[in-house]
């Protein structure tokens, strides 16, 4: 079957007009927010969206609002033409409609002479080179942020203090521009998924948020765009994350429900593979608050560094043990 690359929309007003045109035809709209450099995990979200909605918008935008000035914004991987080819291959029938929203900069409000004084403030991921975070002093005039105050504090929020306000803000902007009926998020970013669900509830967005299970490589490594930065040896060592999580879940099923013991086991496995721990936490699935003993649905969340690459992973335990 002949494949055709999806339509690309770069202007936010054009994106809004497209969505409203689809809605006027009675079509439902799915949204898959991404930062590009798509892998099979992203594509599984797109496939799921196609089953849940009539048309699907895939946003490709490297969001500067979630990077602090010291983080890896300028080195975030990008392959826009490759992303379009992958999305074209996802369409399984002539009725599948995928549109790509690839704005250059959703924090640039084109405010005349003031804007000309700023350095390149790109976002995108195909529409311009990413070089500077909009959270740097001065920014581009953007000063309104969305915060989910309690859920953003722990886990990744401890070491990345601006990350979740940037995530919540850009997702809100995408929701307001695309106006979807359903939006897809991977559970690898577990805290992000829970935070977006809470934001949608609290702010009365009429959008269904769907969390999709973690997509993994055949050897168990959680799929991530950042995996491309791992050396061969680092990648092998990084398998200690998923292996230790599986060991912890098996131990819990055998009655070892003390969280300190399980966390110590995970830390030992990762450190023994030359990983550097950011955090290992066992938390309630809804509140993300830490627990001392597993008595109901929990999630074990891990963030660790291998070389210069920070990886996250998690595993749910959904039944009382």
Give a structural overview.
With 321 residues, the chain is α/β, with parallel strands linked by helices. It is 34% helix and 18% strand. The chain has two domains: 7-106 and 144-212, HUPs (Rossmann fold, 3-Layer(aba) Sandwich); 227-317, Pantoate--beta-alanine Ligase, Chain: A,domain 2, CATH 3.30.1300.10. It has helices spanning 12-24, 40-52, 80-90, 113-116, 156-159, 163-178, 190-202, 232-253, 259-272, and strands spanning 7-9, 29-34, 55-60, 97-101, 182-186, 208-212, 276-284, 298-306, 309-317. The strands form two sheets. It has a six-stranded parallel beta sheet, sandwiched between helices. Helix 6 (163-178) packs across helix 7 and helix 8 runs antiparallel to helix 9. It is globular. InterPro entries: Pantoate_ligase (IPR003721), Pantoate_ligase_C (IPR042176), Rossmann-like_a/b/a_fold (IPR014729). It catalyses: (R)-pantoate + beta-alanine + ATP = (R)-pantothenate + AMP + diphosphate + H(+).
Query: Total number of β-strand segments?
Result: 9
Average of per-residue pLDDT values: 90
Number of domains: 2
End-to-end separation: 49 Å
Strand order of the largest sheet: 1-4-3-2-5-6
SSE arrangement, N to C: EHEHEHEHHHEHEHHEEE
The biggest sheet amounts to: 6 strands, parallel
How many helix segments?
Answer: 9
Structural class of the secondary elements? Answer: alpha/beta
CATH T-level fold name of the largest domain: Rossmann fold
Per CATH, the superfamily of the largest domain is: HUPs
Described by the principal axes of the CA atoms, the overall outline is globular
């Amino acid at each position: 079957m002949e494949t055709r690359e999806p339509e690309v929309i770069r202007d936010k007003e054009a994106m809004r007009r497209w969505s409203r045109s689809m809605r006027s035809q009675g079509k439902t709209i799915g949204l898959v927010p991404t930062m590009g450099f798509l892998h099979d995990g992203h594509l599984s979200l797109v496939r799921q969206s196609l089953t849940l909605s009539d048309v699907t918008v895939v946003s490709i935008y490297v969001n500067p609002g979630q990077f602090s000035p010291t983080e890896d914004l300028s080195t975030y991987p990008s392959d826009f033409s490759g992303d379009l080819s992958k999305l074209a291959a996802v369409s399984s029938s002539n009725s599948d409609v995928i549109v790509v929203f690839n704005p250059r900069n959703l924090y640039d409000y084109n405010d005349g002479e003031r804007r000309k004084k700023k350095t390149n403030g790109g976002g995108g991921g195909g529409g311009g080179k990413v070089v500077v975070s909009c959270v740097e002093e001065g920014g581009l005039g953007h000063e309104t942020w969305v915060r989910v105050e309690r859920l953003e504090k722990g886990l990744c929020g401890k070491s990345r203090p601006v990350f979740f306000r940037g995530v919540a803000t850009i997702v809100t902007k995408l929701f307001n521009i695309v106006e979807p009926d359903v939006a897809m998020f991977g559970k690898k970013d577990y805290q992000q998924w829970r935070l977006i669900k809470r934001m949608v509830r609290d702010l009365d967005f009429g959008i269904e948020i769907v969390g999709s299970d973690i997509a993994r490589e055949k050897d168990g490594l959680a799929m991530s765009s950042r995996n491309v930065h791992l050396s061969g040896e680092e990648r092998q060592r990084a398998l200690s994350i998923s292996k230790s999580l599986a060991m912890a879940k098996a131990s819990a099923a055998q009655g070892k429900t003390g969280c300190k013991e399980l966390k110590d086991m995970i830390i030992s496995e990762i450190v023994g593979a030359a990983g550097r721990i950011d955090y290992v936490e066992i938390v309630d699935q809804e509140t993300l608050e830490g627990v001392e003993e597993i008595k109901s649905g929990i999630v074990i969340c891990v963030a660790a560094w291998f070389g210069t690459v920070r990886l996250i992973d998690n595993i749910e335990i959904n039944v009382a043990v």
